[in-house]
Amino acid sequence: MTASTSADGIDLRRAELASLMKRFAPEYGVHPTAIMDVHLIRSDHPTEDLHSIHKPGLCVIVDGRKEVRLGAERYFYDALNYLVVSVTLPLAGKVIEASPERPYLCLRLDIDPAQICRLIADVGSTAAPTTTPSGRGLFLDRIDAPLLDAVLRLLRLLDTPDDIAALAPLAQQEIFYRLLCGEQGQRLHEIAIPDSQTHRISRAIEWLNRHYAEPLSIERLAQMINLSTSALHHRFKSVTAMSPLQYQKQLRLQEARRLLLAQGSDVSSVGYKMGYESPSQFSREYSRLFGASPTKDMARLREEAT
Question: Could you confirm whether the keyword DNA-binding appears in this record (predicted)?
C-alpha cells in the first residue's frame, strides 16, 4: 500500500467518524452515549478556557483543534494526534479551531488502569522498557490507521445497540492494546503496574481527590504510598507538573467554583469549606487560577448560560 493510499484510507475513516459523531452529538456540549465509557464532544465555535478535573482517558479529535494546559505547560493537538491522560489531572482546555461548517468533534474514552493492568498480564509488555520513569501523566502521540480502525469499530456500535454489551469491550481492549504499542505506551504501562513509583504516585493522586478539603501532611502521604518525602515530591511533580500542595489547591478551587455555580453558595462559606483561613486568601487564589474574583466569575458564567 502506498503512502497516499494509506492517507486516503485514514481520511475516509475520519469522514465516517465525523458523520457518526454529528448524528450522535447534534449540538454543542458533552454527550454521553450508549457505550458507558464513551462521550462525544462538539463545539461549533472556538471556546474560552474550561477548567476540569480530567480522569484517565483517551481523547481523539476527528475535526478541529484544541489547546490543553497543565499548569504552565501547553499542549496542542488535532485530528493527526491523540491525547492520553493517564492519571487524574486538573487541566484547562479550549477549542481553538471550529466552525458551524466544520465543528470541533472529539471522542473521549475513559481508561480504567485496572483494565490496562489485566491486558498487560494477558499479553505481556508491549512497550519498550525504560530505565527511568517517563514523565507527565498526559501525552500526545500520532494516530495511525490501526488505532483509528479500532475507534471507528467502537463508535459504529452506536448504530447497533444490541451488539454493545458483547462487542464494545473487545473494541476497547484493542484500543488500549494499540495505545500500549505506541511510542508513548510505556507511560500507560508504568501507571498500571503495581508498586512502580508512578503507580504509587497515582495512588497519592487518587487519595488527594478524595480528601482535598482536609489538611495535607506530606509525611503521612509519603508513608501511605511507601515513598520518602523527597521521592514523593520529585515523582509527583514529574507526573503532574506541580507539587502535592499545588495539586490540592487546584482541586479545592475547582470544587469551590462548582459549588458556587451549582448551589449559589456564599463565597466566604465555600472558602472556609475548602480549607481557606480567610475570604481574602480564597478570593486571591481563586482570581489567580480563574482570572477573576469569585463574585465576578460567577456573574460572567451565569450570563453566558442565559
Answer: yes
Q: Is the separation of the CB atoms in 145 and 13 below 8 Å?
A: yes
Helix and strand totals (H; E) in the chain: 12, 10
Rounded CA-CA distance 285/98 in Å is 32
| Number of residues that this document lists for the chain | 306
Q: Output the nine-digit C-alpha cell for 237.
A: 511533580
Query: Structural domains in the chain?
Result: 3-191 (2.60.120.10), 195-306 (1.10.10.60)
What is the distance in angstroms between the CA of the first residue and the CA of the last residue of the chain?
53
∠ at Cα 186 (197, 109), nearest 5°?
100
- Tell me the C-alpha distance between 251 and 267, whole Å: 17
| Pairing outcome for strands 73-78 and 65-70 | antiparallel
